[in-house]
Each structure stands twice: as structure tokens, then as C-alpha cells.
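Handout, section B. The chain below has 498 residues.
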Amino acid sequence: MQVIQARNYIDGNWQDSRQEFESLNPADRRQTVGTAPLSNAQDVEQAVSSAKHAYESWRDLSWVKRAEAIDTFAQLMKRDIEELATLVTRECGKPINEGRADAVEALHMAQYVAGMGRMPNGFTVSSEISAKDAFILRKPKGVIACITPWNFPSAIPLWVILPSILAGNTVVFKPAEQTPIVAHKLMELFHEAGIPAGVINLVHGTGEEVGDPLVKHKDIAAILFTGSRAVGKYIQQVASGDAYKFVATEMGGKNGTIILEDADLDIAVNACVLGAFKTSGQRCVSTSRIIIDKKIEPEFTNRYLEKVRRIKVGNGIGEDVFMGPLIEESGVEKWKVHNQKAKEEGAEILIDGEVLSDGDYACGNFVSPFVYRFESYKPNTFCLREEAFSPHVAIIGVDGMEEAVSVYNDTDYGLSMAVITEDYRKWRWVRDHADFGLGYVNLPSIGAEVHLPFGGVKASGNGHPGAEGILESVTHRIAFTVNHAREIVMAQGLSTTV
């Protein structure tokens, strides 16, 4: 297939590259999907300067006019949805049905944000003084840095870029090095949609050479980041040196599905197969802990293992593939470390995952599922507390609902949680006592929708979610009061008498 040459996009122009890197298909590393620029701080400076200049005119447009530009983009995305889905699969390895889901979620975000342009973005409140009107309005913050991951290369960028520009901000977009070609395709659509020069700028490259100077730049007003805990924490620390900089971070999870004694086991098995192994476990919301009542654990485990063994692993371009490759060889090595830790820490290995390297697997980053069991919870273990980001899942026996929630909470993370139960009183108790940002009942721990907030607590993030909730991160809510009287009357009784 044709090798795509991605470029930086700054001030409405495609920029030639001085140096490039390759983006390889993780299902077949012999296949180059495209090339992209290895940018540096000079490129970042140009992009931020362009965004700062464009902000002055873009902010003056109405929300409706900005939304119309986003709607034009949505129409173009809808036209090219299958091309985008295939590109997602080729570049990040997800099976084609997940590539389509990624692209459709991106489209849904564009449609949702376009509709928000005609919704209220402020409101009037009563003043204590009848002759005054008080307003609360949203104002844009300025230039927003959007730093996004590779595992949802079309959806997550639009979660953060589109609300930012709808509100009147401008953007510098730094995509993951693993998926620059999907980012390039999105930028081509923005360009075709006629988004004015400088409103969205794209700079490719590494975290060290592009991400670091971007988050440190004095003209960046807010940073929207999805990625690892270590990088997110570093960004928070850097931004804290500038009192005006706002940071919204989403930094992964050690997510759990809680299965209570009364659970429907058909739902439980299917929820845990989807939650643990879709995207090969490479989701920040993937189920890595199945926390189950001991009374039903044996039957669940037998049924679960039988279904896991039927999972087809392969090149995601095939319609019948359930699980694709890991994104890169370092992901395979990390998976091995987590599996070895489970063995060292006394787990019973139920399915010993393997590196797949024969035949069609020879040139890809393929592994099979790894499933292990603890009859009872074992605290202070690496394997049950640290994010594996791979097809690696534990089954943990517990005695009842309260222990299940205690086990779920015993990790530094707090992103996603699912509970399987037929009792509404039980799921309500779990909802109110588990530490999470995304909760599901009789569903997998995955399944975000764009009109809902997305974010976590504890080490999973700082509570400022993406998707629907990101508007709070890219606007100031300002108070604005108007006096209609011929004199000044103050709510606290102050007087102009001197």
C-alpha cells in the first residue's frame, strides 16, 4: 500500500520535514504505514505563535459560527469514515471493527460538539439588588496544548480539540509518535473543512523534543493530556510553575469488574472477555482484575476460560479477528514482566500467554491472553496493583460485596469499574463506595460515549474529564454584573457617601 508522508501543519500550511521517522504496522513491521517529521522546539515555537495570533480573530466569532465550521468537518469525516477506520487498524493494530468504532466515536464527537454551538454557554442569575442583572459566561482560555495517545488515534484527539476550538480557543496538537498518520488524516480534513489558519496546528515528534517544550511554553494556557501516569505527573509538576496554566490529565487505571453472588454469568463472562481483551488490553479502562464472589468463582472461571481460549488473534484487517497485536515490541516486553510477576507472587496460572511468532505472526507484535487466579486476595502485589496495558487479567476470589469493593479500591488508580449484579441495592452501594470515574452495571469496564464525562480519580487523573466534561477545562466561567439604576447600590450595603 502507498506510504503516506505526514507533515506538520502550522498557520494553515503544510511544512517540509528536516528529519523523519517511520510509522510501522504493528501487525507486520515490514509494512511502513507512513513517515512523519521529527520536529523540535523551533517547530513548537512557530505553532504556538501561529495559534496565539489566530486566537484574536477566532475568539471573536460566535459559538454558532465556530460550530458550523466543526459541522463541515463532521460531514467530511463521515464521507471518509471507512478510510479512517482502515488507517486506524493499520497504524495501531486494532481489529477493523474496533478501527470503525474509533472512527465512529470521533465522528460522534464532531457531531456532538457541532450541536453544542447552539446550546446555552452561560446563564443569568438573580442579583441581590433588583436593578442589577448578573451573568455567568464561558470565555476561552487561549492556546491549548492537546497531547494524545496512540490507542484511540482518531477519537481522543477530537475529544479535546473540538471542544477547545468551539469555545474560542486555538490548539497545538501533538499526537503520539506511534500513530502520526491518523493525526495527519484528521488534519487534512480540518484543512479541507476550511478551519482558519492557525486555529489548529499539528506538530509531530517525540515527547522530549516536542511535548516538553510545548508544555513549558509561556503562551500555553491549558494542557490536555492522555497517557501514562509518569508523563502525566511530570506535566502537572511542570505546569505548577506557572500559576495561570491549567492541566487536565487522564493517566490510566488498574480497573476491575466486580461480580457479585447473584450475577448473571452469561453477562459476567461476556463483559470480562470484552473488558480484558478488546484492543489487546491496551485501553486505559481495560479490565485487569476480575473480583468475584467465591461462591460462583469456579463456575465463572470454567466458562470464562473456555471462551478466552476461542479468541482469534491476528492481523486486525481480517473481519473475524478478535484481538490484534500489541502496539510495539516494548509492549510485549512489558507484558512479559507483568506475567512473570504474577508467577513470582504466587498466582495460579490458568492460561499461560505466549508470544506468537510463527507463520502470519512472524513480523508482528502478537501475544495470546494471560489469565491467572488468586483464591483469595493477596495485598501488596505488583501484579494486582500496577497497570499492565496488555492482555493480562487476574481472577480474585472474595467473600461478599464489601470485600469486593475493598479489593477494588486497593490500588493507586481509580478510573473504570463495572459491577455485575441483579440487585439494584447492591450496585448502588458499590457505586457509592468504590473509587472510580467511570462506572458500569452489567456491562464491561469499557464503552465510553462522547456526551458523558471521561476521567478518573487518584493516580488515574486530576478529576478533569475528557469528552463532554472537557469544556470545563478550556473555559473560564466569568461573573458579569450590569447595573440598570441611576445610582450605585451594593449588595453588602456599601455606599458612595463620602
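Note. The CA atoms of residues 256 and 289 lie 5 Å apart. Compare this with the example in section A.
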